[in-house]
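User: quick one
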Amino acid sequence: MSASESQFSGPNLKVRQRHLSNRAIVNLFIWPTLILLIAMNVFPLFYSLYLGFTNYSAIAGKAPVWVAFQNFSRILNDKNLWTYFATTGRYALMSVSLQVLVGFGLAMLVREKFKGGGILTTLILIPMMISPVVVGLFWKLMYNPTFGFFDPLIGFANPSKAPDWLASRFAGQPVPGLALLAVVIVDVWMWAPFVMLLVLSGLKAIPDYLYEAAAVDRASSWFQFWRITLPQVAPLLLIAVLFRTIEAFKSFDLVMGMTGGGPGVQTELISVDLYRIAFLGQFRTGYGSALAYIILIIIIAISNLYIKYLNQSKGEG
Amino acid sequence: MASFEETGPRTPVVEPTRVDKVHPRAKLGKSFRVILTLIVTFIMIIPVLVMIMTAFKSRADIVTPPPKVLFHPTLEGFLYLFTDRSLFSPSNLEAARANPGNLDYWQKLALSVGQKINGPSDYVGRLKNSVIIAGTSTILSVILGLFAAYAFSRFKIAGKDDLLFFILSTRMLPGVVVTIPLFLLYKQLGWNDTHIGMIILYTVFNLSFSVWLLKGFIDEIPIEYEEAALVDGYTRLQAFFKIVLPQAVNGIAATTVFCLIFAWNEYAFALMLTSQKARTAPPSIATMLGSGGLEWSAIAAGSLGFLIPVAIVTFVLRDYLLRGVTFGAVRK
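Assistant: Done. Structure below.
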């Protein structure tokens, strides 16, 4: 496609292209993308919807048998799954809000230019460039209670009196929630730079005269922050929150590499459980597909709310 | 005697002239902020520093408490990463140590940990796969995304908002859902464990992001430029290539970085849809098992080598990246 378009400098083609109507251009530009997305997403979507109504297992070698709503009713009545959903919600809430706070703070720090600022910004971006599964594995080493760096760095020199994060223990006593917090810390470490990047580009777009006017009026920096900085960056923050929330609900690599859902089910996020259902043990493909649909519906509902709010705040501006 | 000519004119004042910026308190605040930034950056990259250290530690140094900051550097990790080895039996080991013969550096290193090099590991091939698959799919998704984003930004399209939401929603699918049908589809097409299959998959998964990001960016380019060009006799396509494209360069760079980071690091699909021929590096780093569990130095070495290309691309494009990521939410 791009090849034929880049030839328009040829005299013969030029005449023909003049007659390309806007409609033709729209079709030419949009359809390749839409066809790819439909082929690779809509087909799987409908196929897994169908599988959601069957008892199919990818390894059983038997044709799918229609079981109607059995999978869905079992999921909706499964207390464990709702626990995992709640864990995922807690995880998403904690990590997204911390990411926003840390990311915003970082952006405010590197916002004004100074010597070496560009290099520091790039260094801060490094965590999000590492493969999540590698990050997970690697932090397992960081968190190791005997030879990991994390505990000594936060001031626990004696291993027997230090938290064993991934086992959810503190000085030998079980502390529920510690493992989830450990995963949240890593997620924040990894993705706060992403939020920083978005906020930073928002900050750079705030016209200087707003601050100048505020300075002339002797507005406090506190006032400038609440009345100029925050409202101007809010739309970008919401986009960051949208993307990060979607990702948090899908979060899989990181947790898989770090805890595998443990200890017990403390970090069993819903996508980790989905993987377990669909690809481990009995390969309950049908049941997994049904669960995947429920996850999808929840994500779509949340994103829709966000986008509505986003468009509203954009429209007011 | 110092004359005016010798010392030259005084350097011009480049400091901002706003009172609230040149006030001593503001200057103090600035140096405080620079120092704070340095400290925070250092804290953020401590894990990366630990990764670098781990890559050069010997196995014993890694697992001995307390964690060591000073250690004797070794290339063991890279040995584990790049070679396929087997253990010497005790008697053979002594014979080999007694009579090393002509060994190169790596063979000596392997011998010192009681192992023999059998050949290169498959990591090199997987790194090559990663370059091919991530590189091609990034380029494809940026190009396709650019065209689609332009059309969405500039033309009236029936059901535009719904189409855009559909495009975004393809990003919301938990990867695991799509994998099962895709696995079956790819089996029919003969695409399992092929480069083309993975390239198309990653292209599609970056497309939604790329369309959204680029649309936001093209939205910000004033439409008047193209209208002026059209009045001057440019065709739509010429206006697109000669007016819009150069203006969108920041957005293109930012999109490229994000797509590259995703495609380069993707794990779940690679794990489930490839096995040998087209397997990329992340699944193979994650399964780098040594004799006693995970081979940390090899994992660290592998991650480090794997991080460097993306870090370089990001560093080169950093200015565009900072200017480019706006998603159209910023009003000019």
